[in-house]
Amino acid sequence: MKKTTYRAYTAILQHELMPALGCTEPIAVAFASAKARQVLGRMPEKLVAQCSGNIIKNIKGVVVPATDGMRGIAISAIIGAVGGDPSRRLECLTSVTQEHRAAAKELEASGMCQVQLLEGVSNLDIIIKAFAGGETALVEVCYAHTNIVRVEKNGEPLYLSDARGDSDELDMSVLNLQDIYDYSTTVPLEHIQPIVERQLQCNRTIAEEGLQNPWGSNVGKTLLKFLGVSWPIQAIAYAAAGSDARMAGCELPVVINSGSGNQGITVTMPVFVFAQHIKASEEKLYRALLLSNLVALYQKTQLGKLSAYCGAVSAATGSGAAIAWLSGGGLDCITRTITNTIANVSGIVCDGAKSSCAAKIASSVFSAIMGYYMAVDDNVFQPGEGLVMDSLQDTVNAYTYMGRIGMAETDLTILRMMTGEGGPEPEKNTKKGA
């Protein structure tokens, strides 16, 4: 591997695998609001939170950490302004106290935050306007969850950037399966181990919390209760349980992948469970985690941070590829596993962050494990079957194009239905006596 490619891959992992407290969309709103309060120089008397459709979609149904179970954009912005620390980025709510919680609840009830839809913008766009004592502050986060592109005070620009994301300095186009394989299997571990070690520790902790206590819809606990403790069920259950806890507001940090904690959990936990099952060495486990993370990023780079295409699919595909490698499979087996997985479940839609994300993770991880077993038995979906193409690169391009371009109208339809602005009329019961 060229030194430039090696450095690029290391930089990508260092940048992308960051810790986050709670679902990243409400946290991004809280981060922007905390920054707006900092720019204003005092606690705002009024807030206006303007958000793109995908931000609204991913906040509507998820519990915001540090709010005692509350949901929504308004409380996300208010808790950020009241107690958020913008220097902590996606962990900005770790500084929230009980006094902050109580104050935020009162302010939310008073209606101090107005929420507005931003149209014709990036899928990830947040503008927070803060007002107090005749002064104003504005902070805009766009393209990535902590990427500040605009800061204003009293209408005067303090900062303006046209950067397309906070990873613009990284060349994500270098990601390809051959180099991912070479990097993951040869990189000196001391250069990268602390990153994946932290990811494994954080994500395992929240997964075990989700299995030990009632969170969300208890998808992980249900799987183990009724389907047993074979390694595939454990792999699925651990990933689902981490999401169970996270979507229900658990205040444990997660190390993300592609801007998502759910995806960070999904690239991690199935690999960990399989490594334990085969008694893999620590080195093999860490290398497998590198492979899993990079395979997921390889797909998400083409999809974008937010879309109607469920990110659990690309994350589970990474886990499947890593499991194939841990079992002794080479690049051909990994390629077949990836193809089998995305050819199966790439149509799962993202209808916002909420408790059912855990079930979508479970379905995606099951598909990845099935895809792996098919690959081991030399079975793979063939070119011409659906969107499967002659090469893996072309297959990934086809499915990610479908997700990014083909599902764009699906994304809008989901948003309209979730906000009550569209959708089918409720069916009327015409039976006598109803």
SSE layout:
Elements: H1 3-16, E1 19-21, H2 24-40, E2 46-52, H3 53-59, H4 73-83, H5 98-110, E3 113-118, E4 125-132, E5 135-142, E6 148-153, E7 156-160, H6 177-186, H7 193-212, H8 219-227, H9 231-247, E8 253-255, H10 261-277, H11 282-303, H12 311-326, H13 331-345, H14 357-376, H15 392-406, H16 408-418
Parallel strand pairs: 2-3
Antiparallel strand pairs: 1-8, 2-4, 4-5, 5-6, 6-7
Helix pairs in contact: 2-4, 3-16, 4-5, 6-11, 7-9, 7-10, 8-9, 9-10, 9-14, 10-11, 10-12, 11-12, 11-15, 12-13, 12-14, 13-14, 13-15
Helix proportion range: 40-55%
Number of strands: 8
Stretches where pLDDT falls below 50 for ≥5 residues?
A: none
The CATH topology assignment of the largest domain is 2-methylcitrate dehydratase PrpD
Account of the protein in words:
- This protein is α+β, with helices and mostly antiparallel strands and 434 residues long.
- The protein has two domains: 23-160, 60s Ribosomal Protein L30, Chain: A (2-Layer Sandwich); 175-418, Orthogonal Bundle (2-methylcitrate dehydratase PrpD), CATH 1.10.4100.
- The protein contains 16 helices and eight strands.
- The protein has helices at 3-16, 24-40, 53-59, 73-83, 98-110, 177-186, 193-212, 219-227, 231-247, 261-277, 282-303, 311-326, 331-345, 357-376, 392-406, 408-418, and strands at 19-21, 46-52, 113-118, 125-132, 135-142, 148-153, 156-160, 253-255.
- It has a six-stranded mixed sheet with strand order 3-2-4-5-6-7. Strands 1-8 form a two-stranded antiparallel ribbon.
- α13 packs parallel to α15 (392-406).
- It is globular and about 70 Å long.
- It starts with a helix and ends in a 16-residue tail after the last helix.
